Amino acid sequence: MLIEVKVPALAESVPDATLLDWFKQPGDAVERGENLIDLETDKVTLEIAAPQSGVVTELKHQTGDVVLADAVLCVIDTEAVAESSDAEPQASPSEASDDAGPVPHLSPAVRSLVEEHSLDPRYIPGTGKNERITKADVVKYLDTQASSVDEDEIPAASTTVQARPALPPSARPEERVPMTRIRKRTAERLLQAQQQNALLTTFNEVNMQPFMDLRTQHKDEFEKQYGVKLGFMSIFVKAAVEALKKFPVVNAYVDGDDIIYHGYYDIGVAVGSERGLVVPILRDVERMSFAEVERKIRDYGERARDSKLTIDELTGGTFTISNGGVFGSMLSTPIINPPQSAILGMHKIQDRPVVENGEIVIRPMMYLALSYDHRIIDGREAVQFLDSICKTIGDPGRFLLQI
Known about the structure:
The chain is of the alpha+beta class. It starts with a strand and ends with a helix. Strands 9, 12, 15, 16, 17, 18 and 19 form a 7-stranded mixed β-sheet that branches. The protein has 2 domains: 2-77, CATH 2.40.50.100; 182-401, Chloramphenicol acetyltransferase-like domain (Chloramphenicol Acetyltransferase, 2-Layer Sandwich), CATH 3.30.559. It is built from 8 helices and 19 strands.
């Protein structure tokens, strides 16, 4: 029986998708649940799996095509058997199977580069999704081999490596790489935020010592009981919710001539991935415990790296938190995520001298930044909102007293 594999229903805000590399070609056998191709949307990468086992008979679209929801991607014959030969074909050196394992799947561009330099792809570490080898991985491998191989003592595994010819000193190489859909969409939304909102940023700093002491005291027991580490993000997420309750306009957004106030707290947590910035949403955070927040953030981070997040998990949100400190940022002015009206920026924790009770002491300090839409959020509210977060972080006991 012939069955059609179609593009799944996409979110209302996602009109189409772009086809990435096919994992199967006509005549290839496929098992039920096996990935056929990845679709890249403005928000997320979707894996399209085979609904039934069989043989791929036809590809309706090729890599790079833009498709709409319900479009037919390929046809599978569930009663066919993949063609085979009694005599095993002689494998080429780059496809031979030995102790290095099976030959990984390569995109056309990567395969061309591998064949050009007579490389064995099984020895090239892959940094792409599911450890897939990217073009950058091949270039890095070539550079590493070229710099490490000694002319008088060449390792056996490197005898097939041919280094690229050295460029003349005057060479000025350039490479044109198209943006991914996620990167293009991120750029559009950031530009939209700059053009359509009256953005302003206010700053403050917080002494992280009280929470760090609390974390040190209870982190082992916390991890043992809940199976997840107690990090810094959960305290900021919970502190943000408490501040949003006090200043609901920060949790609102502009809709024409109206202001829409949310009676719930869906917090977006900015996560960097290989394909660009994504912001998965923690929904109804006011009902979540610290452990639930930590588990959800860990899950989102892992699935963001593997492009496993769903469109629903990336849609919505009433307020966003971005932690540039994990990359070493000391201070920045984050850009709001439309249609939201504010975003909190966390930064690097660094020991700095501060004055306490008339004495100079060293404390682990963090700069915080709140960017907001000045059309509906006044400076007074923004400053007090950020001050509320700083007080909660600097004195975690305020959670108990609800002050």
